[in-house]
Structure formats: C-alpha cells, structure tokens
## 1
Amino acid sequence: MKINLNALEEVKQKISSLKGNSIKLRINRGRNKIESFEAVIESVYPSVFTVKVNANKQLPSQTFSYYDVLCGDVVIG
C-alpha cells in the first residue's frame, strides 16, 4: 500500500502541536477491543510518539506510530 507522505507529515505536525496537552485517545486493539482514555503527549520522535495515561496506573505510558493515527487504529479526539 502506498502511503501519502504529505498526510503523514500533517499527522506528525498535528501531534507535535499537541505535545504537553491533555487529549482523549481511542485505540482499536482488534477483535472488537477498543480502549478509550485520557492521556498527555509526552515525547515526539521521528517515527513514534509517547503518551502518559492519566487514569490507568497499569499502563503508565504507551507508544504509537504516526501510521497508527493515519490508518485509524488510534484516534485523537
């Protein structure tokens, strides 16, 4: 599958602009397993970004790729 590099750059810029802000995430883990929680974007790297989960102590931080956002597995709302 061909990736639109302009769209990927837009996702990176959007996430970079949200760094440090509290956001709501909805993650599709597959087989009708959807998780929703509030988190803060901690770090932004060239290929991935990390978020710190506010409420769940079992999952203190999560890492996602920009492609996860682009393909819809991770929805920032």
## 2
Amino acid sequence: MDIEQVATIIVDCAYTVHKTLGPGLLESAYQAALSYDLVQRGLKVQNELALPIAYKGIKIDAGYRLDMLVESMIIVENKTVDRLMPVHKAQLLTYLKLSNLKIGFLINWNSVLIKNGLMRMVYHYNDRPKNALRT
C-alpha cells in the first residue's frame, strides 16, 4: 500500500470516529478508537512510540512519544484543544524531521466539524537526517 492510500484511510477513519463519538472526550479515547478502526482496515498502528533524539552521535531518550505511527510511514498527533496553535504544528514538523518521515496528520478532535480540526502536514527536506526512525 502506498503512502497516499494510507493517508486516505487515516482521514476516512478520523471522520468515522468523530462522527460516532463527537467532540468533548479525552485525547486518549479518540486515539484508541482511531487505532482500532485503522487496524480493522488492515493497517499496522503503533501507539505512544518513543522518539529518541540524535545528538553528537548518541541517541537520547528525552521522553518524546509519537501518538501514532501508521504503517511505519505516517505520524498522527491527536489533540483535544480549543484550537490548534503554532506550537502544535511545530511539534509535528519536528517529529517528522526527527523520524525521517514525510507526512503527518494533526487532528484536533475538539472541533465541531472534523474537517476544521484535521491538518495534513508534509515535511520538505533536501538532506535527510541520519537518525531515521526504524520500526
């Protein structure tokens, strides 16, 4: 399955979860439901995956965790906030850079309409970092 097919399934499942549960729950509830739906659709999902930082040739576990890694190619960061802030976008872009991945989704489940809370982000890069996330 290519990355665009996986991305399409993620968006479809996010719509289904939000339509079923609506806004107002904890982030963990949406993450569990989305993970369940993605697995039911045949995708491999890893939750709360450690993301070490490479610094001067060593790996540092600084406590960073990807909410979800789907098919070892797309990061999903789940939020339940009044609105997405620049720091949330920066977080996802940094995670994409550190993991050597290209596409991520930032999902704010606390939106009345999920289309207003769903953001696809692409990390544009020329020199890929040597500390690529391997799963």
## 3
Amino acid sequence: MQFGVFSVSDITRDPVTGTTPSEAERIQGAIAIAKKTEEVGLDVYAIGEHHNPPFFSSSPTTLLAAIAGQTERIVLSTATTLITTNDPVRLAEEYAMLQHVSNGRMDLMLGRGNTAPVYPWFGQDIRQGLPLALEHYNLLHRLWREDVVDWEGRFRTPLQGFTSTPRPLDDVPPFVWHGSIRTPEIAEQAAYYGDGFFANNIFWPKEHYIRLIEFYRQRFAHYGHGTPEQAIVGLGGQAFIAKRSQDAIRAFRPYFDEAPVYGNGPRMEDFMAGTPLSVGSPQEVIDKTLTFRESFGDYQRQLFLVDHAGLPLGTVLDQLELLGGEVVPVLRREMAKNRPESVPDAPTHASLVAAKYGDAEPRQPRPRPNRGDNVTGASPYEDSDPAVQARLPLVG
C-alpha cells in the first residue's frame, strides 16, 4: 500500500503570524515538502492544478519534473489534472514527457476541477463539464496506446494521422486515477477503463464516499477487470499531528477557523466527528485512518493533506517527520494484516512493464514522420528507393 501527501497549492495568510507567503516561497516550499516526503519514507507526493489566485500550481508537470530531478524514489502524481479544460493532445505530450524525465516515477489523477471560471478561461462551457471529461479522456487514452490516431469528437478539431510525442516510456502509458467528490459517472469511467478511482474523502461523511467506492468496485467487476475487491482505490484525508492531542488541537485551531475552504463554518470538533479530519496524537491519527479500511475495504493509496490553510513550511516539515516516523509505519503494518493476497498493490511503472513484457526487454518506440510502424521503427518505404528512404529520418 502507498502512503503519501498531496497539496492543493493554496497561498493563504498565516492566521498566527499574519504573514502571507509569496508565490516564490510556496513554490520552493513545495519542492522542499516533496523532498522531505521521500526522506521520511513515504511513497507519493501529489500536487493539484489551479489557474487562479490564491493557488500557484498552474503547471504541475513543470513542478513535478523539477522534483523528479531532486528525488530518487517517490512517485510523483497530481492531486488533480484538469481533463475538462486541458487539450488531451497537450496532456498526452506533457505527461509522457514527465514519465520519461522521472524514469517512470509518476502517474496522474484526472478530475473536472472545482473552480467554475476556469472553463471560459480555456474556451469551454462548464455546463458541458461531464461530456468534456468523458470525451477528452477517451482521446487521451487512445493517444497513449495508438501510434497513429484518426479521431473526431464534439469539443475539438479532428485529428488525422496524428502521433503524440514522446511516446510513453517502454510503450506503457502512465497509470491514471480518476478523482471525484460526488460524480458517479466519473466512477463509471474509471471502472470502464480499468483505471484507479480516487475519492477525495475530505469534506463529506464517510457514507457519501462509501456509495461512490462501492459503485466503482461493482462496475470494475462488471467490465471484467477483476473482482470488486481487486479494484484500485485511493483515498484522501487530512491530518494535523502533535505528540499530545491537546497540543495538536490548540496549534491547529486558528488555521482551521480561518481556512478558506472550511473556515467560519462548523466547530473543528464537529468537523472532526463528521469527516475524515484527524487532529491529535500519532495514535489518534492512526486509529482514525484505520477506520477507512473498515468503511471502504482494502485499498491501495492513502494521501494526507498537510500544507494547507496557511501552515508555515517549518510546521509542515515537522508534520512529515511525525507522519513518516510514527504514523505510517504503524499503518503499513496494520493495513497489511489479513489483507487478501488477491488484492493488488497500487500500480507502478515497473509493475505495468512487468505485466506487459514479463521477462522480455521493453520496447522503446521510434516514431517516424510517416504512417509506418511507430513502435518498431519499420517504414512502409522499406522496399523503396534507398534515396527516398534516406530522406525519412527518425523523429526525436
């Protein structure tokens, strides 16, 4: 099972000190947090995508590529990649490039986003959000698996004889999670393709997410990808940890009370009682997180939100020390108990390569600027005039 952290990339005033970090400080802080995530033994760092203040992560592939160059082991992911307002061709290219740059240490989570104005900024209509998500992913899925694509849809110009470059590393597309807070159609989409389903699991009571996840598991089995228990599920969560429970509650309360997302609403204690928010000692965070398994079954990825609501970088790094040193080791051990052997681990590039090739050497695509075989590099002009063939160099 994978454990990690995710960020929504908010730039929020610290209610204790009254200071607001700059974009530069938050961006460099994100890199520091990702490096610390690896240092303390966690598995995944994920960052969201936003295109408006007060968020900074408008280009997650750029940030994750920078982190890839400064880490060795962690999987780099997105907490949301906007499948609705991004062109699927650009998504295919940018994330395949990140896959190469990171040597396969990446995957991505697709979502529709929760910022309404972003749709017209990128020439789309929010009323078409769900059809956009469905159609755009159908194209993205094909672009990573078909070397030459002819395609026509409702929301972008047709493609004729198009090859996205670079091709996926080892001819194995990045693994995709579909993230949703409330939409069963997205759970259906994830199940149809045999992809992962990530339930945000932050704001709403567990009963809401139980319905979504159970629906996804049933449809995953319906489409022949395995049993419901073998479906690939990820969960979010929020935690603030201190050695003593009362210290955690006292330290986090001002950040909770003024948080842009849930501040000025329910009391923190009420929010903790009704949602997955954990504020307390390491043991209290462990105990609450273990209830997720009781509610949702065995799952593959658990991500914690740790750097939101104006928390200073030093505090976040301290949180990671506690998370990696005292919480996650216990969760790994407890989550492994009585876990059926039939329940798969979270897919990684290495496991996907092994599933495709076994012991054979992976193929590396060599695209040509013609309608030849992009995987092997063979050309339809192999038997033609050598002078013609010489004018057909490899692309890239």
## 4
Amino acid sequence: MNSAAKSTTATSSVLDVLRANAERHPDKLLYAFLDKHGRTTESYTYESLLRRTEEIASHLYATHRLESGQRVILVYPPGLEMICALFACVRLGVIPVPVYPPASHGFAAALYKMDFIAKDCAAAAALTDRSYLWSLKLHRARRSLSSLATERSYTARLPWISTDTAKGDAGVAPPAAHSEILFLQYTSGSTNDPKGVMVTHRNVISNCDAVVDHDPVTVSWLPQYHDMGLIAFYFFMALKGGSNYGASPLDFIQRPVLWFEAISRYRATASAAPNFA
C-alpha cells in the first residue's frame, strides 16, 4: 500500500487529510467535471481546490460571519462549485446540508422538501451559484406561488449566498474552526418527510479506510447531494489521493454511453451506480 492509501483513521478532520495529500502531490488532478460529450468543463488539482476553498471560506466569514456549528443548505446544480463550497464550510466549522435543487420538473414538491430540511436543521443561510438562484426565482414566479406561501417559506427568509462570485477577501483570514459533524445527510422524503443523519469526520474517514485500498481513479454521475455520490466519489478521492471524473445525472440519462466512454478514456479503477443504470 502506498503512502496515499495508508490509514487515516487517526486523523480527526477530512480537511487535514486533504491538506496532507496536497502537500504530497499539489498538481495532481483531484476533480474534473464532464459535459454530456465527455469534455472537461471544470477541474481542480489538490492545490487549486484548497485555494478555492480558502477563497470561499474567507468570503463567507468576511461578508456573512457564518459561525462554527451553524448549518447551511447547499443548493447547487451538478458541478464542482458545490464541492468547493462544502469544503469551505468544513474550513469554517459550519455544517453543510446538501439538498436536491428544485428544478422545473416536480418543482413544488422539491421546494417543499428543501424548505422542510432547511427549517428542520435550523439553517442560517443557503449557498448556491448565480445561475441557479436566478432559475429558482424564475420558477417561483412562473408558478405564481402565492405571497402568503412565500412569507411562510423558511428558505425565502434565508440569506442566499452565491459562492461563485467569491474571490476571497484580502486580509481576512477565518480563524481555525472545527465541527465533529462533517455534514448532515437527509433522506429523499419520497415516502415521508425527510429525516436527517449526522455524518462525522470519523464516520467518513473510517469507512474510507475500510473500503478503499488503492489510489482510485473514479467516474461518477451520481447526484452530489446524495450520500453515495458525495462520500464515495468526492470525500473518498480527497482522502485517498485519488481522482474523480464527475458528470451530471441528467447528462447520463440523455447519453448513457458517456459513463462507459469516461471509464475507458480515464482508465477508471472504480465506479458505482444503481441497478437501473
């Protein structure tokens, strides 16, 4: 077993392991995201991901004073900005809560679930990107949601922060902070109201050591807000010094061969998907 795949169980923070891997191979690809034709639309090395994480964390601390232990919902379309924002939350000791981003199909039901989750975890803010925030506002307007429903909506009263505009704030370095809880994972809410589970740093680190025994190269189109996609293909890669090539679930549905093409092109050593795939 090489140094990147050695046990990390004794480490208390996912971010500490990521930093150690970045010191060993700063220029190695950590994450890439592909369009439906397999072309790379965005990517981060270990070093550049840490740099972007720090930029977002500095912006959140300087402009919104998010504090350790507060919860924030992450409402992003598929892509790497959510992953950067998630690690920025970890850097601040803020607890991220990934949620499904309501889209045109099933908008009202998805909006209800998002609102339920935000209220249940007492979210202090919602993180997103500019394009999705405009899309959300447009869908609300098109459906002529009543002003009374909007007033009662928990998420409508939250500050919505577009992290893709964050460039860091010179001279504002967030203090060191840590939360034992890495993130909150909510169930889909398909048969009942969503229920949350506290996932700790130790949970993910221990599970990674039990499951991954090599430097992985992975391909995944699984949703990033879901535990299987998030943990196996984003957290595990950062912990084991691997690389992940991600794609949108919608692009996979439109062009399923994308999955196999990417596995072949990048010589992936691991992938996963539900049976229907």
